[in-house]
Amino acid sequence: MKNSRLALFAPIASIMILVLGSGFYTTFTSVHLQTQDIANWLVGCVSSAYFSGLVISAFRSQHFIFRVGHIRAFSAFAALIAVTTLVQGLFFSPTLWIVIRFISGYCLAGICVVIESWLMAASTQENRGTVLSVYMVAYYLAQATGQLFIKIPFAYELMGYCMIAICAALSVLPVTMTRFSAPSPENPSILSFRYLFKKAPLGVISCIISGLILGPLYTLVPVYLQENAKPDDEVGWVMLAMILGGTLLQYPIGKMSDKIDRRKVMVGMSFFCVIAFILFIPDIYNIPWLMVLGFVIGASSFIIYPLATSYTIDHVSHNEMVSAISTLLLAYGIGSTLGPLLPSMMMDWMGPNGLCFYLLAVSVGLFLYTLIAVIYKPEKTHEKSHFVSLPRTTPNAMPNPQQVE
């Protein structure tokens, strides 16, 4: 038991160090672009390039991992993140940054594929849920802590990028110095959208909408706050509250969804999203109230993807579960890629509140769709899969631990 816990320390420690920098990376990039007086639609393009890299990496990075192994793949991806981050700090060019953010997204998704498949292989049927819960909490806590880096008064923007590169370089140490062997990778299969949509349309659509919401939350909320004259340190606190909200309430809400119809829980969470985004529109709040709103937004929006995943797993056969989750991850990736584009253009047209109106419209759509599903489509009897909290920052294949034997 002790050896099995030690075997999990290295991958979890490495991802925490890396995410400490990458969590700050996204916010710092958006803030830096805003200081350069760049159009919001161009900020959206840079953000979408990052999520495009995440989506493509869900497929392509696996071949590289299979060829060189987990540890070498992690080292290569981390090295690329460090190099591209420094290049971004040295040269300001929106076109170049689009390419850099695409590479960063590709590498970060590849690293998460490495770590999550490592944890899956190192865990057992009896403790896999616990292992993934520890990973989820570690991931989000590192991401939330990284937001506080925005409070550091860097003399030059380059210093911020250097800190991100240092985190990427240090993240290699735990996985390369561990005395435990990395697992041998396996090649997962992917189900088609059409097939899965016939099985559980609510699950597929909810995953896409989750991406449409979380993509702008990660990348455009810092821009929104800056355009409303909020200082950088307050931006960091609001982002921290949002991520903490998404972390702390995942387990209790998921536990609730194991006992009642998951669709009813999704109706409730989407309703809270609607209320939170309505309250977010007027620029009348001080920092404590903004943090409360950020916490509620994170708690209600971060849970959508795990709920949709668990709901979909309830509707597929046992041998389709891994492939179904891979397809749902791709659906999320598509949503998160498209998500920053429209609200960034709306912000150029309507001002900062364009982001709030976009998020409100999308969450209203999810609320109405899930409500109609509950009222007009009674749930058939299925054996429920137990809810497992999953961090949604990268689209990569992760089987539901309670369902894979």
TrEMBL record:
Xref: Gene3D superfamilies: MFS general substrate transporter like domains (1.20.1250.20)
Residue span of region Disordered: 386-405
SUPFAM superfamilies in the cross-refs: MFS general substrate transporter
Transmembrane segments: 7-26, 38-59, 71-92, 98-119, 131-152, 158-180, 200-223, 235-253, 265-281, 287-309, 321-343, 355-376
Taxonomic classification: Bacteria, Pseudomonadati, Pseudomonadota, Gammaproteobacteria, Candidatus Berkiellales
Compositional bias segments (type: Polar residues): 391-405
GO terms for cellular component: plasma membrane
GO terms for MF: transmembrane transporter activity
Major facilitator superfamily (MFS) profile domain sequence ranges: 199-405
Coiled-coil features, chain-numbered ranges: none
Keywords attached to this entry: Membrane, Transmembrane, Transmembrane helix
Organism from which the protein derives: Candidatus Berkiella cookevillensis
UniProt entry tagged with the keyword Membrane: yes
PANTHER family per UniProt: MFS TRANSPORTER, TRANSPORTER MFS SUPERFAMILY
The protein's name: MFS transporter
